[in-house]
Amino acid sequence: MSLPPEVPQPVNRPNAEAEPVNQLQKIEREMTGFERATLRWAKVAVIMSALAALFVCLQWWEMHQGGADTHTLAQAADTQAKKMTDMSTAADKIRQAAEDMVTQDRRIADNAQKALDASSKQSKASLDASIVSSRLEQRAWVGVTDLHLVGTIEAGKPISAVAVLNNTGRTIARDVRSVLVVHTSLGPIDIEEYSKHPDEPMGEPFGLKQGVFNLFPNQIMNLPAQSGVPDAEAVEAIRTRIRILYAFGQVSYMDVFSRHHITNFCGVYTPPTYLAATATAVPSDARLGTCSTHNYAD
Fold it and tell me: How far from 112 is each of 97, 122, 125, 158, 184, CA to CA, in Å?
């Protein structure tokens, strides 16, 4: 069996790793200008592709980070929204509390105003009562302290009566006007009604109307009056109580507070039961009794 022929090997054989590079350089030298331009543009395209890939990677990374940040922002926004909701709820509570306070303050103010009005009314009532009390204490009080007949009751003579006026108050009674009437009637009558339209003229001799005068505190004044002249039959009727004898009148006056007052008075005569049937005169020195009406003062 024959051996294969030996292939002569060149001296200084080039390095195997450098051969591709050398070959590439040789190829480049042998390439035309168009091919070399194409190769350069291919390199540029590769570089641009690498840059584009890098940009896409960076963009993806930015989007990834942005998504995480967006999620964080969304969570923060949700948390902020919840806080805002809580703040809104708290604001509503504060507003409601403020309205409640305003309502309470208004209620307190109303109660205070009512209390003030009540206190003012009470103070006014107390003041009015004090004024009334002071006026009652200081005003004039004119009354009749005595009412009686004078002399005897006999035929042919008028029946005389006297009313004693007295100002028991602390101040003067002004514009005093008074009248006294002596009247006889068959049976009892209501003097309160009769005094409104008496049969006797309001002047002498049946009734005496005094002129206007002033009556000072503790001053006394007599008010006299006379009836008509009775005959023997009238006197006998009085003695037997068939005819009733009245003496009544009125006093009007003004006090120092310019308030008008009236005092009405009435007395009725009751003859003694011991008189003899043949008596010609009826004694009248006893005081008159009080009538059932027409006795009051304001």
Answer: 22, 15, 19, 73, 67
